[in-house]
Amino acid sequence: MFDLERWQEIFDTIRKNKLRTFLTGLSVASGIFILVILLGFGQGMQNGIAKEFESDAATSIWIWTETTQNAYKGLNPGREIQFRNEDYTTLVDKMDLNLEHKTMFYLPRDVTTTYKNDALIYQVMGTTKDAQFLENQNMVQGRFLNWQDESQVTKVAVISAKIKREAFDAIDSPIGEYIKISNILFKIIGVYKDKAGDREENRIFIPISTSQKVFNGSDKLDNLVFSSPPVANFEQAVQQSVHLKAEIDTYLRQAHSIAPDDEGGIGINNQMENAKRFYSLTGNIKLFFWFVGLCTIIAGVVGVSNIMLIVVKERTKEIGIRKALGAKPWSIIGMILHESVFVTAISGFTGLIFSMGLLEIIGPNIEVDYIVNPSVDFNVAMATVLLLVVAGAVAGFFPAWRAASIHTIDALRDE
């Protein structure tokens, strides 16, 4: 039931103590503001890390060669390991590995690339048809490499949208155009777009067989890349990926006589392990943000409780008169709680509106490494404010209970 007199009392009290009420409300509003901003940047970090992993397939495992560091089976340290086609075919065809996609890369050395009379300063990479999926790429024109290109050693190339924009801006479509790689003509058959953006679009892809035979690569390989199939949840995906990595690592170390404890020889990057590590880190950071924000809110709620104690002290005589006229204890408690909840709620929603508005305005425009579009779920923010209102009620209850417990005679004697 709407009690007009109660609201008049609340506004009269606020008008008499404008500065005190403002400072109390400011402490509460700032607590909500800080919490929402921190949570927003915590979510922004998760978005940023997720974007970082868009550069390659989420479950991909990348393997490359390094120099051995330990002696093993009579072999000296410092050996340069070299992958061969046999390593790839053994892993793919002879071992019972749970694979979704697989590919290999060979990077021709000392090649120059030109279009007409213009030099193209981009990296040439020989690979297979599955590279499109492992590199997380979409075709915007033409097609990617296929099995026929590999088997027939065709001289075809796939360029990126960035290369098209920078080197072929004068024509509508580069499909069918020819580029020269070390004075050998390659026909452009497709244009790809990488989800990670321009930084991953400095590469020209040609068939692995062509890169090895035309550019004296023999059967050498620079990278092996595999991915495991999707599973029900993240933890299962991590376990599956770790198991696949262990099997690949064990075979390659045995095949190339590398000590099991040698930190060199072979390098392996497991995207799922990286993702788990980063997500755990951001989860801990978000917990820390919650802790800092809640501590700030608690400080504001304590301020509300202290102000209510002062209000009770100032209105002790008034409370005594109310009780002498027959006011019930819960009526006194309700009067104090009403003011406490009102100040807390208004301050909390003010802090929420300002923080959500700020995130909405600047969030999409933030361009910082590992932070993308900081934002907060509105339901979470509302739940936080409602929790704050409850906390404000609790903060006001104890001063209100003290007010209701004052003996009428003592209250009337108060000066």
From TrEMBL:
Family: Belongs to the ABC-4 integral membrane protein family.
Signal sequence region: none
GO MF, one annotated term: transmembrane transporter activity
Membrane topology: Multi-pass membrane protein
Record-annotated ABC3 transporter permease C-terminal domain positions: 291-406
Lineage: superkingdom: Bacteria
Name used for this protein in its record: ABC3 transporter permease protein domain-containing protein
GO cellular component: plasma membrane
UniProt keywords, alphabetically: Cell membrane, Membrane, Transmembrane, Transmembrane helix
Subcellular location: Cell membrane
TM helices/strands, residue ranges: 21-41, 287-312, 332-358, 378-398
Protein's UniProt keywords contain Membrane: yes
Domain MacB-like periplasmic core as annotated: residue spans: 21-240
Pfam families attached to this UniProt entry: FtsX, MacB_PCD
